[in-house]
Amino acid sequence: MEKIRKLFPLLGQNIYADTATAGLLSEDLMDWRQEHDLDYLIGGSKMKIKAIQNQIPEVRRTVARFFGCKTENVALVPNFSLGLNILLEGLDNRQRVLLLENDYPSVNWPFESRGFPISYAKINAQLEQNIWDKVKSDSIDVFALSLVQWLNGIKIDFQFLHRLKKEFPDLIIMADGTQFCGTANFNFETSAVDVLGTSAYKWLLAGYGNGLMLFKDDIMERFSLKATGFNAANADISKKDQIRFSKHFEPGHLDTLNFGSLKFSLEFLETIGIDQIETQLLKLSAHAKNAFTALGLLDPEVVGRDGHSTIFNIAGTDTSFRKLNENGVICAQRGKGIRLSFHFYNTEKDVDAIVRILKTKG
Q1: For residues 141 and 247, what is the distance between their CA atoms, to the nearest angstrom?
Q2: Pick from 241, 271, 301: which residue ends a domain?
Q3: What is the pLDDT along the chain (362 residues), one digit of tens a residue?
Q4: What 3-state class would DSSP assign to 255?
Q5: What is residue 310's DSSP assignment?
Q6: What single string gives the DSSP state of each residue in 194-246?
Q7: Is 130:121 a contact under the CB 8 Å cutoff?
Q8: Number of domains present in the structure of the chain
Q9: 324 near 264, Cβ under 8 Å?
Q10: Is-contact 198 204, C-beta < 8 A?
Q11: How far apart are CA 125 and CA 245, in angstroms?
Q12: CA angle in degrees (0–180, nearest 5) for 150-158-73
């Protein structure tokens, strides 16, 4: 991992504990992006047409391979928020929806603004039981959630989602994977999730302006999508009325720089090995949870759960936040505390250094 860490210059002078805000740009990705734009500089439309025709299908295939999804069910979108809003324009707003209290606004607001009948489950140590009770008591049609919570890093139990889907097979499970994708081996087709969307600038390390939506075959008939455009028909006027489900999310041109960056980053993660990344993050999560629990910095709802992501919201004042910053720790203030988030380029030594800083008086 030390060799890989050298690809991220920021790590040379700082402890980067803020991937939950933005993943780091690697030197290799920067080199690829510069070469791409140099080709555009000297090639103009010839380069762009060729890239759109050849590169975008390769991006789609790479996404499908990485996430275990059918290629034709991959939609490339600038970000999760736009993808979800397009999707919900095609969903009957009489469908009963379950959301999580204080979930990421871009998950909850699009449902709330469209007048769906909504129930809410509390995010605490009994999260899964809260969800089960609401789905059963409120006759829920659609359950939408972040797989990992942005404020405190609570991670849904994926086996629970399987049990939920088995008990309620008609339930549509929509998931925001923005704080999850890139942290663990995930196969979409064998999962309980029916719709997965993610922005790729965090744990996938792909920079801004690219994301994806994945769909299961058997939920498409529940939506009547209206978004369209020339690109949705692959620039073929005769195909106006033959647009497949996922292409409704791509009405206009796709940026070959941004989506090429997505392909580059997914292949980079594959080179490291997603299983190796997951193993590293499990170690970091356990180490950090033990350390922050010992200092009394974590909420009981986090301490009381088995397993966790590598996102932690610790109790801390403005003074604590400034002290971390002054000692080279890049993190974020979220909610009532300080959010620390660790990726594979972090080490247990980073966690230990943060603990020492927090223990220091003054």
Answers
A1: 25
A2: 271
A3: 778 999 999 999 999 999 999 999 999 999 999 999 999 999 999 999 999 999 999 999 999 999 999 999 999 999 999 999 999 999 999 999 999 999 999 999 999 999 999 999 999 999 999 999 999 999 999 999 999 999 999 999 999 999 999 999 999 999 999 999 999 999 999 999 999 999 999 999 999 999 999 999 999 999 999 999 999 998 899 999 999 999 999 999 999 999 999 999 999 999 999 999 999 999 999 999 999 999 999 999 999 999 899 999 999 999 999 999 999 999 999 999 999 999 999 999 999 999 999 998 75
A4: coil
A5: S
A6: SEEEEESSSTT---SS-EEEEE-GGGGGG-------TGGGTT-GGGTT---GG
A7: yes
A8: 2
A9: no
A10: yes
A11: 37
A12: 85
Same domain, yes or no: 308 and 189: no
What is the value of pTM for the model shown? 0.96
Tokens 């070959």 identify what position?
A: 256
Q: Give the separation between CA 83 and CA 248, rounded to whole angstroms.
A: 10
Give the three-class secondary structure for 297. Answer: coil
Q: Are residues 111 and 99 in the same domain?
A: yes
The alpha carbon torsion through 281, 282, 288, 292 (nearest 10 deg) reads 130
Give per-residue pLDDT as tens, 159-185: 999 999 999 999 999 999 999 999 999
Coil, strand, or helix at residue 1?
A: coil
Domain identity same for 319 and 256: no
- Cβ atoms of 80 and 211 within 8 Å: the answer is yes
Contacts of 54-59 with CB under 8 Å at 24 or more apart are: 55/256, 55/259, 55/260, 55/263, 56/254, 56/256, 56/259, 58/263, 59/259, 59/260, 59/262, 59/263
CA dihedral 74, 213, 7, 4 (to 10 degrees): -80
Cα–Cα distance measured from residue 280 to residue 307, given in angstroms and rounded to the nearest whole number: 14
DSSP 34: H
Is residue 31, in this structure, part of any structural domain at all? no
Q: Is the residue at 25 inside a domain?
A: no
Domain of 220, CATH number, reads 3.40.640.10
Strands (E), 293-355: 311-315, 329-330, 332-334, 337-341
- Among the three residues 242, 271, 300, which one is the final residue of a domain in this structure? 271
Residues 247 and 317 in one domain: no
Q: Give the separation between CA 132 and CA 46, rounded to whole angstroms.
A: 54
